[in-house]
């Protein structure tokens, strides 16, 4: 069954299903072209819909992968890796199509897609080699892991840039753009999962019910020449300094949400992006528990960070200096206040139970957020404004 979509203007009935659309695309549009040429709307929607599918596979795989590595010793062909690989395969095909046809992108967005993919494909085998040489990588913050995140972030920046320039204004454009920013926030925030899973794993060991397999605990202890005790488990689960978590979770996340609010251009867009990400984390939490995999603390405080960004835009009324200044103040107050409140939920509700509602965190980075966030926010807004003026 088919329906008349935008392609009907070309005398072509566009199939409903992805297989039919794929066949039609290769039959009618698989022609070499340069970036920036007009793209039929059905092709644009189909291509960027597949981008959303690709990143969905990658997020599902990476979420399970984080939990997996707090239970088992690494396995290159573990199910989470295979799910992530499906997403990567779709990404490779999409970048190849954009590169060959030039549809759905301009030169800059295409270069970002290509550069991000290349970085990711370089980082993946380097990470495998690192594990072959060094064994289990005990932190999400390792150089090879960071290169994977950076590559994915650059790729997502290209997709967001391409969609902004290619999609016609309207509700569908806003929804897809919001979804892409949710994926960007997830990719940026992902390393903080080390502390969110780590603190729960440490408390599980302390209460005599370790979630990690004995082989993983023994391997982690051997890496530091130590017996399997609290010191070894702490090194395995919580190797990152306490100042990193709030600086990244509040300060860097606020920058992402500020850019999302600026590009989406709708009231409460930052809150919507943060809420969608937190909702996803809340949904996979019981799924992991039911599947007997380690769970994590959920960053509910991100809702307050998103709200602070939106309120700053409302008070600042898009002023290039006032908005970042107000944003720095509100993000610091709302973000740290909400994180502190979340950390109190365990003692208030569960008493001395060996679990936590938030990872441990340092308070002094609040000064860095208060001072540094407005400067970076202003700089990013200024750069983006100049680019928009240049394009127009």
Automatic annotation (TrEMBL):
Transmembrane segments: 42-61, 81-103, 146-164, 243-260, 267-284, 290-309, 321-341, 361-380
Keyword terms, alphabetized: Membrane, Transmembrane, Transmembrane helix
Superkingdom, taxonomy of origin: Bacteria
Protein name per Swiss-Prot or TrEMBL: Uncharacterized protein
Source organism phylogeny: Bacteria, Bacillati, Actinomycetota, Actinomycetes, Pseudonocardiales
